[in-house]
Recover the amino acids of this structure.
């Protein structure tokens, strides 16, 4: 065989056109590159789909963990509701005792006080019964939490089953066990007993004070009428100090004020009016004509006004809310009483011998017959020496006595009304002095009771229902998908091998509780408490103040101190505080100040929300052996991802044991406690409804789940599927 000359170049040119170009890219290389690229793309896509299908178990694990932890959150809501009821019942009982104490300080308030104290006793008994039953029921419920959480997690996992998926879930609360819930007795009953024990004595003293002050009020009303009340009433002629001062002395305006109510009048006004009146009359006094008789009368009036002005200026009125001290000096109202004054002994009258060996005393130096007067003497001297009466001025002791008598014995005289005011001032002072010890006895007797009330209210804030239930640190959920699924299902391709099967997949997830200050927790608790308050509000009768107080406290539970202040203020508004002794106002102010000073902190009503977290966080927060084991296994899994670790077995055993212990006795709902207040017609249950899956489940469900998960352990041990 030989080569044909001249063919080789042509052959070379033909081969270059088929297998390569001038840039070095051959047709075969291009085809091979495309085939490899497509194989890699479709293989990667199938790997992604397989991983995506396998990762679905993680989403289910997260949902199961949240579902399990949600039961713990709801349990905490129930705890806080029970705490709200117990706390508000304690505060209501103490507030009712405080209101009863205030009522017992009010004269005539024994009936209301005993009603309030009886209601306080009923509420205190209700609180004790409720707290005992609630803590017992909550202890049973928290013991069942591992079972409830496990069943709810399993139900959520089962809800994700499909044609190719079959999920099994086991939930492990952290911690698995919890301390018992307990609450101590409060001091509300002892406070009520102390107030009840002192109520009779307080009422006796208060009533004594009222009787004395009623006498004082009557005296004050009478004095007011004779000072200016007669004129203010429009009576005719309206004789009184005001009217006489206006007519006789011409006083008006601020010099002669007019009060229209005894509530705005005081004895000091009458005293000031008398002082201005006598000063004005003394200055204005003058004879009405030129007769000797009128001159004598004017001289006598001037002596009376001068004496009265000086005497009244020694008077005073000192009055406070708790004391009264007054001195209304009295003028003589006749000749006999005049003889007991300095008017009788003053050497104010001229006398002398009339030339007939007779001594004559004259009314004043201006007497036409007083030219023989050589000395000055007193009326006492005139009567003791038997002086002869002057035939011109006719001066005797009665001359002066008549001046006082004329205006003191008839109702158109200033002195007539002044004497009545002075007499009533003495009665008023006597009555006020009699009331003061009784008022002090009420205040002193109630002081210790208010102190006991304060201590009890301060202690009530510490007597709370609190819980650290199973799952308070979080929950770890183990979920396995035991359903089989073709690896290329829905994604068959000639570029990737087919016929593989996705078998058991498993994942861990964890959830814990965080507080959500968004207000939902307050809304949940407030919604329940509003219903309780509405039921309580249906009761009528004398206990409305107590029930209204409890209703206000329930509705304002999250407000703490301000709710208590408002409730007590509303209760005080229903008491007859405005009375003569002032004890009602004093006791109300005392109670209000006591409540204001407490500063009770608002209750924490933030909602607890379950959130997904790394399982290590939950495991490290739990000090149990299972938690420590989980943390250790996770560390090893991170360091040696292909090593087989007995992770699921530990979790399953712990979860199964805790759940079985709490499974007994559960039904569709549990009555935590019942609020029953004897005598007030209140009976309100507090019930928690369990998820339907719990009421339908039985203990064998937990055992079955645990066995199934253990059965697949061998096929998934060592697979690292962490959140």
């Amino acid at each position: 065989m030989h080569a044909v000359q001249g063919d080789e170049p042509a052959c070379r040119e033909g081969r270059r056109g088929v297998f390569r170009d001038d840039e070095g890219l051959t047709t075969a290389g291009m085809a091979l590159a495309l085939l490899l690229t497509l194989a890699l793309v479709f293989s990667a896509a199938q790997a992604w789909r397989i991983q995506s299908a396998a990762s679905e178990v993680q989403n289910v694990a997260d949902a199961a963990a949240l579902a399990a932890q949600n039961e713990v959150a709801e349990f905490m809501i129930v705890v806080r509701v029970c705490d709200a009821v117990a706390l508000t019942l304690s505060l209501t009982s103490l507030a009712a005792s405080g209101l009863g104490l205030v009522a017992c300080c009010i004269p005539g308030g024994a009936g209301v006080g005993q009603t309030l104290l009886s209601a306080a006793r009923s509420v205190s008994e209700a609180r004790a019964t409720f707290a005992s039953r609630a803590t017992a029921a909550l202890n049973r419920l928290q013991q069942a939490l591992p079972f409830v959480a496990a069943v709810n997690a399993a139900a959520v996992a089962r809800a994700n089953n499909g044609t190719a998926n079959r999920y099994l879930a086991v939930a492990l609360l952290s911690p698995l066990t919890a301390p018992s819930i307990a609450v101590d007795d409060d001091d509300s009953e002892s406070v009520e007993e102390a107030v009840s024990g002192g109520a009779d004595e307080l009422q006796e003293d208060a009533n004594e004070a009222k009787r004395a002050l009623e006498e004082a009020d009557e005296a004050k009303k009478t004095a007011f009428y004779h000072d200016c009340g007669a004129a203010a009433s429009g009576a005719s002629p309206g004789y009184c100090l005001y009217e006489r001062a206006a007519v006789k002395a011409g006083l008006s305006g601020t010099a002669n004020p007019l009060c229209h109510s005894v509530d705005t009048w005081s004895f000091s006004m009458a005293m000031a009016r008398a002082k201005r009146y006598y000063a004005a009359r003394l200055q204005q006094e003058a004879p009405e004509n030129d007769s000797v008789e009128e001159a004598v009368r004017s001289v006598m009036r001037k002596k009376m006004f001068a004496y009265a002005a000086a005497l009244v200026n020694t008077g005073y009125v000192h009055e406070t809310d708790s004391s009264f001290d007054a001195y209304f000096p009295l003028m003589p109202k006749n000749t006999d009483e005049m003889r007991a004054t300095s008017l009788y002994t003053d050497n104010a009258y001229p006398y002398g011998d009339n030339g007939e060996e007779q001594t004559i005393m004259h009314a004043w130096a201006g007497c036409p017959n007083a030219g023989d007067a050589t000395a000055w003497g007193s009326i006492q001297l005139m009567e003791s020496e038997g002086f002869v009466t002057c035939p011109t001025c006719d001066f005797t002791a009665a001359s002066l006595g008549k001046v006082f008598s004329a205006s003191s014995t008839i109702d158109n005289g200033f002195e007539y009304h002044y004497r009545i005011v002075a007499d009533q001032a003495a009665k008023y002072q006597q009555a006020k002095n009699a009331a003061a010890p009784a008022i002090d006895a009420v205040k002193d007797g109630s002081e210790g009771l208010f102190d006991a009330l304060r201590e009890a209210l301060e202690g009530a804030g510490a007597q709370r229902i609190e819980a650290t239930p199973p799952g308070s640190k979080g929950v770890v959920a183990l979920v396995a998908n035991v359903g089989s699924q073709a690896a290329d299902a829905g994604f068959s391709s000639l570029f990737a091998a087919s016929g593989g099967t996705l078998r058991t997949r498993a994942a861990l997830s964890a959830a814990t509780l965080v507080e959500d200050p968004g207000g939902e927790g307050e809304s949940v608790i407030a919604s329940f408490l509003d219903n309780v308050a509405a039921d309580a509000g249906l009761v009528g009768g004398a206990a409305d103040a107590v029930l209204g107080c409890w209703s206000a406290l329930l509705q304002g539970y999250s407000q703490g101190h301000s709710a208590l202040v408002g409730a007590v203020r509303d209760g005080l508004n229903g008491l007859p505080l405005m009375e003569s002794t002032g004890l009602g106002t004093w006791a109300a102010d005392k109670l209000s100040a006591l409540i204001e000073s407490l500063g009770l902190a608002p209750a924490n009503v933030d909602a607890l929300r379950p959130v997904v977290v790394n399982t290590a966080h939950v495991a490290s927060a739990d000090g149990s052996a299972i938690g420590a084991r989980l943390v250790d296994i996770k560390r090893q899994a991170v360091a040696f991802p292909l090593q087989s670790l007995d992770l699921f077995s530990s979790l399953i055993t712990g979860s199964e044991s805790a759940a079985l212990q709490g499974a007994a006795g559960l039904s569709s709902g549990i009555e935590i406690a019942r609020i029953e207040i004897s005598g007030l017609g209140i009976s309100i249950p507090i019930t928690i409804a369990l998820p339907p899956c719990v009421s339908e489940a039985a203990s064998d469900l937990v055992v079955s789940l645990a066995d199934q998960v253990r059965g697949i352990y061998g096929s998934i041990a060592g697979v690292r599927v962490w959140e």
Observations:
- The chain is about 60% helix and 10% strand.
- Residues 27-105 form the longest helix (79 residues).
- The chain has a mean pLDDT of 78.
- The chain has two domains: 40-186+463-716, 204-438.
